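Input protein
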Amino acid sequence: ALKGKGKLVKSIQDTRAYIDSLGICTVVRRALGFSDKPDPTMLNLVTGLDFTDKLMEIGERIYNLERLILAREGIRRKDDMLPARISKEKIPEGPAKGHVLTKEMYEVELNEYYEARGWDREGLPIPKKIENLGLTNL
């Protein structure tokens, strides 16, 4: 397993959450010349404020808010598991051809991801994370 995957996944998710919150279709956004990297230009122009240093925090807040809503509905670690066939069937083609992602490997990576997110072992945001993101009133 590649170390740091949890942080990488978190970063990608936070970036996508911010970009998706702009309300512009990915195809249109690309046609207008915007990349998939966090770029404050549009948000700064629309609001008149400077969000340059806050984009990833915005994405992280969105992602944690989504998780808190899911937690309210009972979503936990058990719901973050992949289908059983993933840990049994070999990957048929591509660079990982012949490999299998075992349940044990996935558990390790899920733990790393939860740690990168500031979530507990059940996949719930810890109180300090909720406080740091200003989501305590939910």
